[in-house]
Amino acid sequence: DQQVKQNSPSLSVQEGRISILNCDYTNSMFDYFLWYKKYPAEGPTFLISISSIKDKNEDGRFTVFLNKSAKHLSLHIVPSQPGDSAVYFCAAFTSGTYKYIFGTGTRLKVLA
Amino acid sequence: NAGVMQNPRHLVRRRGQEARLRCSPVKGHSHVYWYRQLPEEGLKFMVYLQKENIIDESGMPKERFSAEFPKEGPSILRIQQVVRGDSAAYFCASSPRIRDQETQYFGPGTRLLVL
User: Fold this and answer.
1) Tens digits of residue pLDDT in A69-109
2) Are B107 and B8 in contact (CB under 8 A)?
3) Which of A23, A78, A82, B53 gets the highest tally of CB atoms within 10 A of its CB?
């Protein structure tokens, strides 16, 4: 039972354009969401998070949008850079708990 | 200010041997989590520990796997009598304390290969 789903295993985007990575969840108890970036042979690096009381959070080139009614969140990267090429994981959890539930990841390739 | 450290980074074991994976959390962090990532999958929660206490081990197989976080020293994930299916990347994460919403910071992982 995959509670957090990233249905696109891979995505290619031209440098300078927008990258949009999507994530869907099924558990309505989740109220905090995070995006992590992972390079090969390294651990996940925290990127950005959003609480369910918000619908948008922005940090530099990264913006996360949350649509609670659709149980959907997305990560926008603009402009995309070659160094953004990595696997992106979304994660979710419920306040007061500590178990992150991860999606299976989307491999982003930014083409120069 | 060192991040989460894990060693070894790579570990090769033959079936039936023991594997010990170590994790030193960020200085000042007293909460440690272990996750496992199988090929082409996301990270799966295994266990959550505070100093000298296992808080939740619901994600850890009941047999052969154990974890500890002693008062002094790193957290240890121990796998006894390893089998080929244990081959995976094992990630440790830490956080400073539990609030309602606490970001976990991950180490580089230990890649275990069972021959």
Assistant:
1) 999 999 999 999 999 999 999 999 888 777 899 999 999 99
2) no
3) A23
Task: Please give the Cα distance from B109 to B106 (Å, whole number).
Answer: 8
Nearest residue to B95 (alpha-carbon basis) of B84, B86, B103, B107:
B103
Calculate the alpha carbon distances from A63 to A47, A48, A75, A81, B105 in Å. Answer: 10, 8, 6, 15, 20
Q: Does B34 touch chain A (CB under 8 A)?
A: no
Q: Do B103 and A51 touch (CB under 8 A)?
A: no
In chain B, residues 67-106 whose CB comes closer than 8 Å to chain A: 91, 95, 98, 100-106
- Sheet with B5-7, strands from edge to edge, namely B5-7, B19-24, B75-79, B65-68
User: Which pair of tokens denotes residue B19?
Assistant: 């594997």
The answer to whether the beta carbons of residues B109 and B38 sit under 8 Å apart is no
